[in-house]
Amino acid sequence: MTRTVLKSRLPNVDVPLQDLPTYFFSRMRQRTALATLDDSSPRPLFVDSDTPSLALALDELETLATQLASGLYHAVGVRQGDMVAIVLPNTIYYLAVTMAVLMLGASCTLANPAYTAGELAHQLSDSNARFVITARANIPAIADAIEKLAQSSPHGLDQTLRNILCIDRAADSPMIGDSDKHLVRSIFDVLSQQQFPRALLTDINRLRTTPAFICYSSGTTGLPKGVVLSHYNIVANIEQIGYAIRTMTPPKQYERTTLAVLPIFHCFGLILAHSLPIQGSRLVIMRTFDLARFFELVEAHRVTDTMLVPPILNAMVKLSDTAAMHDLSSLRWIISGAAPLGPDTARSLEQTYNGVRVMQGYGLTESSPGLSLNMPKASRVGSSGQLLPNIQVKVIDDSGRALGEGKVGELCFRGPNIMLEYLNNKEATRHAIDVDGFLHTGDVGFVDSRRFVFVTDRKKELIKFNGFQVAPAELEGILLQHPQVRDCAVTGVFDPLRQTEVPRAYLVLSDVASTAVHADEAAKTIVMWMNRQVAYYKQLRGGYVIVSAIPKSASGKILRRALNSAPTAYDEAGMAPVHVALVADPQIVDHYSYDQTGALLRITEFYTDIYLRKSYNVLQTIRHPETIIFLGDLFDGGREWEDEQWLEEHARYKSIFRNRSPDTVPVYDMAGNHDIGIGNTVVGHALDRYHKYIGPTNRVLHTGGHQIILLDSLTLESDTPAVSAASRQLVERLANETADKPRLLFSHVPLWRPDGTDCGPLRQSPGGSLLNRRGYQFRDQLFQNTTSYLLDSIKPTAIFSGDDHDTCTITHTVPAAGGIVKKAIEYTIGAFGWASGVPIASYGLLTLYPGQKLPAAHIVQNCFLPYQLGIYKVYGASFILSLIIVIAYCYRGSRSWHPVCKPSEDDLASEIGYARLQLSPSMSPSPTPGAAIEELPMPASMPGRWRISQTRVIVRVLLAMKSIVVVALPTYGACLLYFYII
């Protein structure tokens, strides 16, 4: 007789009858006692990856959680049964916050800090949250979400929701304090040692029915649903996963170091943040993921294991050259989850990273989440692992009939870790959990005789983007709110560059927008609008397809598998594009971070996409992930490419360069493999990694908060009206915000002659120039319009312009800047030997250490240049940025630069792999202090393949700026660059 319910072959584990805080701290004390017996000195549990001195040991964690619980009770008013929203990025304080809430008998709803105000408003409302605990960077979005709720609620807003708690210390946060509508306090200001009613749960029924966490999971219908996980669910899954993790322990059990990469608000990250410390791991908490930084941290902390998602593992295989620069020999285990991992990828990774074992697992938020995991002595290629202890599974066909082992059908699981319910949604709960207690996953697969789980297909319609679930129905509901969308459907398509699924929209346009002339523009506008409504991982990265009808069944259900063959709106003779892989998206997005001094950092990003027209009715584009990093990604124009080879080459360069150290990342310019403006490159790279290089770090200390706005100057005169309008909006915003500050405009295009007269229309790129090689001609009128608009809008205090092709001409006007600018230019010529050429001014600044003003001879003899980037040439952009630094340095006078560390030359060379270059003395004629500004030809013998340290230049600019706005307009109008102290 065929067995229809299959049980795990692993021995059952006992589930302690304790609430989560009691269980966690009691198990941790046992672990600490065992570690002491093992002659291992106690180590911190949680360590901040950017600031290793910021760490929490067990006693510190428990004390902080207890005092915070007391403060929440006495000072804030949290009571048993309340819901507290936790909107936090990865932080060493995450578990202290959640434990404090649970100690009071309250529950936590965990929200993605990347959510928009609208998405946060839904979760706050649906979970009935009464309090919010967050980080300073998320306060603006939360405040907006609360205001949305206040406006939409017919019964008014629960005013306790306006009491926002922040994990940042009050002294470090200018945003913390009373305001007109919200009271924001630091958790460290409410800590208390008073007694409070500790909620202790020991009864099995209360443990099973008392919610600990409400994690939101995207469903196939409607908005994300709250998954209610009880104390019993979480404790059970910690024990189940713990059984598997113990099989991966190193020779000394308590010498594990885990690099915590996954977001803790995600159920996978949450359970591991509890389970791994109990199994003896020290967790190094990575705030935001960056692969180059990942390699650095594995080496620095001697990481033994980590948990990743398949797109990261794919990137690790492709970037093995970068990994080879680091000692990763300590890394032994990688657990992969959240999405399927191909066996070829796992095999390649194990071969590339000798000694590393990749363990694929499977689970869902609804199962807390772990269900199966491959283990060192029990693994099968292609499987998602063996059933964890206490887990039962049945495989059913479409009629609900159980099939038994080896048969393919829908996977359904039962165990102590299966969720309690979907919050406020009995109908969805009834569909998900049957009368026998089995969770219907919507995944199709089979289970073999040894109870290994194989997932072969997905019955659910969810899209998995980098491990995040995206519900098509949610996106469709938003799209249908747009007046120009008559009908729509969203499905996932695989993106080979990102190695993950991305959402694509199929649009049936309204009568007004459906003519061939207007359809393309209407669809672009719709997608731009759409992407502003949702978190970054829900955006329509797969672009759109304009169709005449959405294929549906007789009952009206969308037939998603038939979407690719849906009838298109226009035939081959039509005017409008039928398919666009991605569209221009003139988004203005504010991110908030903070520097190591505690000053608020606002980063404003403006970005669009490139159009590569392959034929008159098909547009394709290449787009990097979330932010701008490659110079070519800034252009909004039309280019024609002859074949696919260049696209593949660009993708390869992008994959390689994007994850290298910022000091060695070249810009791969889409126009011809050259860097034609270092300013935009540096800022794009900094934006892409701002948490590391502009946010808190143990390597760079920033003084004051900074606002960075990155803007493509071509978009000021874009063919797409929405792009031009958004560009000008950003310029006007900057002008208003900096009305009382000096503004310096730098341009590599000659705007004025040395005698002060206007150069007139700006020239096109000369024949044979970098951009002209691809057949793209810049328009004189466009630059003239752009320049005129900038001069009228920015009204710069001083203007510098120069031609970086033939001469180093610098012309200037100083109508209101006093002697600062003139003094800076004289200082540049006199101290740095400008006559010796651009490289001296540029590279010499790399040797400016605190308190030093170095003579030209020292600079000439001690320049450090990267040796491995031989295909790049430095032009005048480097000089302009150097001049910015010098101006700022003079402006600040004798004040210290205050970097965290003062690197020696040897440290600098070893840290970033620079090679010493001895310049010829003939390149450095004796400068004349205070020499008049005149045209000086660049040295004929100047080496043509140099590159400066991008990050160190940008850091010095940011360190130096003090109430100065800088606007840099590179030669070809690639972007505008603002630095502004707020």
Automatic annotation (TrEMBL):
Q: Please, which domain of life does this record's source organism belong to?
A: Eukaryota
What InterPro entries does this protein's entry cite? AMP-bd_C, AMP-bd_C_sf, AMP-binding_CS, AMP-dep_synth/lig_dom, ANL_N_sf, Calcineurin-like_PHP, Metallo-depent_PP-like
Q: Where is the AMP-dependent synthetase/ligase domain?
A: 59-423
What's a Gene Ontology MF term here?
Answer: CoA-ligase activity
Q: Which residues are the signal sequence here?
A: none
Domain AMP-binding enzyme C-terminal per the UniProt entry, residue ranges: 474-557
- What keywords tag this UniProt record? Membrane, Transmembrane, Transmembrane helix
Stored SUPFAM superfamilies: Acetyl-CoA synthetase-like, Metallo-dependent phosphatases
Q: Which residues form the Calcineurin-like phosphoesterase domain?
A: 612-805
PANTHER family documented for this protein: BCDNA.GH02901, LONG-CHAIN-FATTY-ACID--COA LIGASE
Mind telling me what this protein is named? Acetyl-CoA synthetase-like protein
